Automatic annotation (TrEMBL):
InterPro entries: DUF2059 (IPR018637)
Organism: Mucilaginibacter terrigena
Keywords: Signal
Signal peptide residue numbers: 1-18
Ranges for domain DUF2059: 85-140
Official protein name in the record: DUF2059 domain-containing protein
Length: 154
């Protein structure tokens, strides 16, 4: 669930400001911040960003890949770094969970099982992304045919 929010934030650069969200008290927002700390969201954010860049650069020609990565890293460091995004991320969590739920989740992420979940998330994320890619690639011809038929008929 954490990764869904992190990816959404990365892809769409959430513009929600914590100060402008109605019905979120300072203690509710603080509970969300505590969850982000307990869950290691800052490191996961960085790891997810790196994985996203690696995946995006896979289709870039080798002779342009280094420059592509430099530009993307510069852009991300300027507009999407953790320090800029953490308050918005806390606000997103505060919108989706009650203050008590946030506190309970923070407690969970400090347990051995919560720590293990954090350690396994990047691997699970990469493997699930690969499963999705394989599913599409395995049926790419069928998808292309469906698209041709759909657009030729109209």
């Amino acid at each position: 669930m954490k990764y869904k929010f992190l990816i959404i934030a990365l892809l769409f650069c959430a513009t929600v400001k914590a100060q402008t969200i109605p019905n979120i008290t300072p203690s509710h927002l603080k509970a969300a911040e505590e969850l982000l700390v307990a869950s290691g969201a800052d490191m996961q954010f960085k790891e997810t960003t790196a994985a996203m860049l690696k995946q995006l650069s896979a289709n870039v020609p080798e002779d342009k890949k280094q420059k592509f990565l430099e530009i993307m890293n510069s852009f991300i460091n300027k507009y999407m770094n953790w320090d800029l995004m953490k308050d918005q991320m806390a606000a997103l969590y505060a919108q989706e969970f009650t203050e008590k739920e946030l506190r309970d989740l923070a407690v969970f992420y400090r347990t051995p099982l919560g720590i293990k979940v954090n350690q396994k998330q990047p691997v699970l994320f990469q493997k699930s992304a690969l499963l999705g890619q394989q599913a599409v690639q395995g049926h790419q011809v069928e998808l292309q045919q469906m698209m041709r038929e759909a657009f030729n008929e109209k």
